[in-house]
Amino acid sequence: MAQPNIIAYAMLLAWPFVAWQLYRRLDPARALIWTILAGYLILPPATKFDFPVVPDFDKDSLPVLLALALSIFLLRDRIGFLPAGRLGKALILMFVLSPFVTVLANADPIPVRQGQDIPGMRVYDSVAAVANHVIYALPLFLGRRYLATPQAARALLAALVAAGLAYSLPMLVESRLSPQMNVWVYGFFQHDFFQTIRQGGYRPVVFLPHGLWVAMFTLICLAASAVFLRMGPAEARPKQLAVFLYLLLMLVVCKSAGVLVYAFAMLPLILFAPRRWQVLAAALVAVVVMTYPLLRGAHLVPLDAILDQARSLSPDRAWSLQFRIENEEILLARAGERPWFGWGGYARNFVHDPVTGEMTNIADGAWVIQIGTYGWLGYLAEFGLLCLPLWLLGREALVQRSTAFPPEVAGLALIFAFNMLDLLPNGTLVPLSWLIAGALLGHAEALRAARKAARPKAPPVQAVIRC
Q1: Radius of gyration of the chain (CA)
Q2: Cα within 13 Å of Cα(378), Cβ side
Q3: pLDDT tens across 207-237, in order?
Q4: Are residues 11 and 42 in contact, defined by beta-carbon separation less than 8 angstroms?
């Protein structure tokens, strides 16, 4: 892969000024949304400033750190870093501290071939790993602070629709001419070009890591437009329907079967289901996401039956699915050698060829990567933290009426739930995902606080004095 050009590094250097202008001109919620969303869509992938000691500055970390710094120093605000409940606090502490334990448990080098070992983890690595986990979770804290109102959730949905419409233009160009935007602007192609060829054409990549990331982003934007289509006043429905149909066309342009299946399941819920049912469905998806790796680890998932069903639908897709499953089984067996804290970094969680030293397998799903790297403890911490907002909303849905849930919040819950579902086959967990999770966590805590405040208080018990 060619090296990034000077424009790529100039964009990273310019982003602090862009974020500063956004925070000067917009309200805090919109400034946060556009700092992270635009950075995710525009900044160059696979490009970073690698300074010693401090974490890398790239398209994922830089916008988040800038949002935090501007919230503290420009807005003079205080950001809370612990959720309200005990479970949330415990998950945050597990998520931040588990990398430190992983590093301590992996100080030994791994022999690969004669004269070449994979190095053991060092104390320096623990500092970097903990810092990276804090940065991963920063959008959760920021979203909880600034996006926990229906108005902020509506602003987030509107930003997604606007960004989806704008991003559709380079997507259309790439679907016709092949993915070249990153080459034209930043001087390199960020992935394997062969994987962009689909169905006699191309699937767009633009400035994201892979075409699957573009497809998931397009699905999120389409779902956001569906929320507006259902909420909108009658006079706005024709325009909203046109936007919805256009983004649906762009989802087809992405040439990804998985997101079409997600859309087939999610869009009817957004358009027709009561809000309470939407929230409960999102919580149920979170349960599926959380339990699937546990069932896979216990070998309780009927993989052969799933593959047979896939072969009856599409032999090509079945072969791809089988390839993924075989690699996941190898990685799960590797993770089973150090199940609690994982293997740490430096690709220690992969199997290596004893002759060449090269990795012999690949990892696609975020869950299997997390288990192999940080063990089951790290997996439970990260995925538990991501599922927590949906579970808290689901708890409120069991005890409150649909009117308690603004349509924006119910729609965001479904959007995030299907983003979570995509973490089983893919690694599409990005800062935008954490930001949506933070918004939902803030809403769930606000709903619980309002319910408790509305609960009638018992009359005071008068003491009886007996003589």
Answers
A1: 23
A2: 29
A3: 999 999 999 999 999 999 999 999 988 899 9
A4: yes
